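3.2 Worked example (two chains)
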Amino acid sequence: MRTSAMVFGALLAVAGLIWIAQGLNLSWAPRSFMTADRTWVVLGAAAAVAGIGLVGWGRRARPR
């Protein structure tokens, strides 16, 4: 459970950062329907925070 939580959290955090980049219309971000839409900045930030929290929870969880 710890490993899967940490992996999923890391993937969620990276996806959130990409969503933020797309919402801010950064030049290196992939183009999609999210480009230059500020909604994705907020959703990406929430996803990144949740992902970081999940990684933190996975690191603190007691192994069985």
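3.2.1 Second chain
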Amino acid sequence: MKKPDARTRILDAAQALFFERGYSEVGINEIIARADTAKASFYQHFPSKEALCEAWLDSIHYRSVVRMEATLAGSGTPEEKIRAFFIHLGNFLEANHFRGCPFSNTSAVIDTGCDGIRQHIIRHKQSVREFLLTLSREICPEDSAATRLADTLFLLYSGATAEAQNARALWPVESACAAVSQLCESANFRTFSNPTVSA
């Protein structure tokens, strides 16, 4: 069997190590050793660890976008598609031993100089919000209500991800999934209103 090219091996090694221990806890030399390549080869493909992280996040983002586009194009009601999105989250977290969201985990450890990485994180989070907004617009005829529903779903999704990671259990995702039906039903009957936040 042909050995993968150096760039692929480096990306595969980075994905495994960044996912296992986090971006800040992994050094270039360890990635090079895991990838079984030379340091010169590493820098030929990635000028820095930051550039490698951007490529890693980009590969995850691409797979996510493909899945979201397939969900939008598939059959089912908007509520069913949103619920399927949350169910996939649970499957993803369980399959990866509740390590959480690679974008959120990376965001928590990078410094202010990592603008490229930060932009990749923002882009991905925005794509999830846009996905939920597209489905929310099919539920709510009024754009303001659709935006509120989408933002609530996004925060529910993000919170469930974080708490499932903290608890290393599926119950936060299961609870969030149950709440999806209530939110969508409220939106359908136009009872989904903008809450008043008091100090």
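3.3 Remarks
The radius of gyration is 19 Å.
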